[in-house]
Design brief:
- The chain contains 19 helices and two strands.
- Strands 1-2 form a two-stranded antiparallel sheet.
- Helix 5 runs antiparallel to helix 6 and helix 13 crosses helix 14.
- It starts with a helix and ends in a 21-residue tail after the last helix.
- The relative contact order is 0.07.
- It is an all-alpha fold.
- The longest helix is centred in the middle third of the chain and has 45 residues.
- The protein folds into three domains: 66 residues, no CATH class; 198 residues, no CATH class; 63 residues, no CATH class.
- Pfam families: TrkH (PF02386).
- It comes from Dorcoceras hygrometricum.
- GO terms for molecular function: monoatomic cation transmembrane transporter activity.
- Belongs to the TrkH potassium transport family. HKT (TC 2.A.38.3) subfamily.
- Its main location: membrane.
Length: 456
């Protein structure tokens, strides 16, 4: 029976595996939230509870119920849902399933793996003493052991980073009375707040146990600085830090053989979050570059805004860094987004649109794959690494217009809105695209909408 279910599981499409996982966990979370009593009456509707459960496990950070309605026990349930739905955790589970499938494959049925600190010795059955067979099994066993090692590294990374973050938040709450008083007035357990918040920002969910998100903690710069690394290490910097962790483990002689194999065979392993060395460096540079750009734009446009009113210079700097780090999918905020300048909002939208592993820095390809006679194409490819996509150009011009016309946007929001500016920029860009097609038969095209007549 066990073998039957195992074979059935292997035949299921990966998409349906993921769908089954999220659906089952969502219903389980809904059941627990329904059984546990909320802090206030009346109880939230079943649909609201189910929506919140789905939002937590899919780390979407959308809710139809105020967070302070949930009791301490319900907050713990939401914490578990966010932890189980985080990208790092789900990828680790998938990695262990992959290792399990590889270990159960028929090629390893006749292989016994004996390890020592320097190498792995493969002892096959006497009936399978063929050299090619032993070589194939040795490669398979190396892959199996490396995937197993990588799975435990991801698990250790997940637990150590979050445990350190939770400890730092608890220490901060014990030392800073202003932050502790906020939780006391709201009736939130400090330990629950620390665990819930760290798990939420690490999983890029954005749920915070307070109704005002992190706005009530905007003056607690220490707390914001603790959460910034959690935001980055659980999202955009996960891949570079994972590779760096494996490199460090190899240097300190912890599973040195597996570390070396992983670092040299990134493509063979096929783990989405384990990137090549050059890509990891380019990604880290891109993340830090976008963080600086976001900080500069937010600080320049919002320095004297109502959202940062009452903060000193240091608190504004920390708040700008925190807000810029959260733009890349995390969702926590220290300002009311409805009061933020339109140019900043457009930038935030673009940052949320970008995938976490987007890199704008050039990455050299393997020189052996580029023939000597195609040197000019290699140089052209290197130049095009810096060329942005059409969407990026649109976003840049929209942001620039929002900055130059910010006074008119405030004085005449009906005619000068972000929506109108976006439509006009895209309309002009579409007209330019049509004009560029003149060589293929279009003789004229005007932004005013004049009909284009085919030439000749």
């Amino acid at each position: 029976m066990s073998r039957f279910y195992y074979d059935l599981f292997l035949k299921i499409n990966p998409f349906f595996k993921h769908a089954l996982y999220f659906i089952s966990v969502s219903f389980l979370g809904f059941g627990l939230l329904k059984v546990l009593r909320p802090r206030t009456e009346p109880k939230p509707r079943n649909l609201d509870l189910f929506f919140t459960s789905v939002s937590a496990v899919t780390v979407s950070s959308m809710s139809t119920v105020e967070m302070e309605v949930f009791s301490n026990e319900q907050l713990i349930v939401l914490t578990i849902l966010m932890f189980a739905g985080g990208e790092v955790f789900t990828s680790m589970v998938e990695l262990h399933f992959w290792r399990f499938e590889l270990g159960k494959s028929s090629k390893l049925d006749h292989v016994k793996m004996e390890k020592n600190p320097d190498h792995i010795v493969i002892v096959s059955d006497l009936s399978h003493n063929n050299g090619d067979y032993n070589s194939s099994n040795k490669n398979l066993s190396l892959e199996y052991e490396s995937i197993r090692f990588l799975g435990f590294v991801v698990l250790g990374y997940l637990l150590v980073i979050q445990a350190f973050g939770i400890s730092c938040v608890l220490v901060h709450l014990s030392l800073v009375s202003s932050a502790r008083n906020v939780l006391r007035k709201k009736g939130i357990n400090p330990s629950t707040f620390a665990i819930f918040t760290v798990v939420s920002v690490f999983a890029s969910c954005g749920f915070i146990p307070t109704n005002e998100n992190m706005i009530v903690f905007r003056k607690n710069s220490g707390l914001l600085l603790i959460l910034v690394p959690q935001i980055l290490l659980g999202n955009t910097l996960f891949a570079p830090c994972l590779r760096f962790s494996i490199w460090v483990l190899g240097k300190i002689k912890v599973c040195e053989f597996n570390s070396e194999y992983l670092l040299k065979n990134t493509g063979v392993i096929g783990y989405y979050h384990f990137l090549p060395s050059m890509h990891s460096r380019a990604l880290a540079g891109t993340v830090l570059g976008l963080l600086l750009v976001g900080f500069g734009l937010f600080s320049g446009m919002e320095w004297n805004s109502d959202g940062l009113h009452g903060l000193n210079t240091y608190q504004k700097v920390v708040g700008g860094v925190f807000e810029s780090a959260n733009v890349r999918h995390s969702g926590a905020t220290i300002v009311d987004l409805s009061t933020v300048a339109p140019a900043v909002l457009v930038f935030f939208i673009v940052m949320m649109y970008l995938p976490p592993y987007t890199s704008f820095l050039p990455m050299k390809s393997n020189e052996e794959q580029i023939p000597a006679q195609q040197e000019k194409w290699r140089k052209r490819a290197a130049i095009q690494d810096f060329v942005l996509s059409p969407l990026s150009y649109l976003a840049i011009f929209i942001i620039a217009i929002c900055i130059t016309e910010r006074e008119r946007i405030q004085q005449d929001p009906l005619n000068f809105s972000v929506l109108n500016i976006t439509i006009e920029v895209i309309r002009v860009d579409s007209a330019h695209v049509l004009m560029s097609e003149g060589a293929s038969g279009l003789s004229c095209c005007y932004a005013s909408g004049t009909v284009c007549e085919p030439s000749g």
